[in-house]
Amino acid sequence: MRKVAIVGTGHTPFTFATEKTSIELFSEAAMDAINEAKLKPKDIQALYLGNCLGDFSEGQAMVQSYAANDIGAFHIPATRFEGAC
Fold first, then answer.
1. Which DSSP state fits 74?
2. Please, which residues have CB within 8 angstroms of residue 58's CB and are 6 or more apart in sequence?
């Protein structure tokens, strides 16, 4: 089994309303984590994204693929996990 590690973290401010899309919020937090870890998007080998309302709030059910592309992590497996709070 391969060893994996969390080597960087990022988050966006918690707020009720925002003008940003969920993909923009993800990208902002993801780039903070990538930069903190001193990595580049091409170093990312897979993406796992938790999202339960993208298809309702933004009309986009495949947010994981768009999120991967938005941070420059092209051609990687991207998986969306759904779950309510």
1. T
2. 21, 22
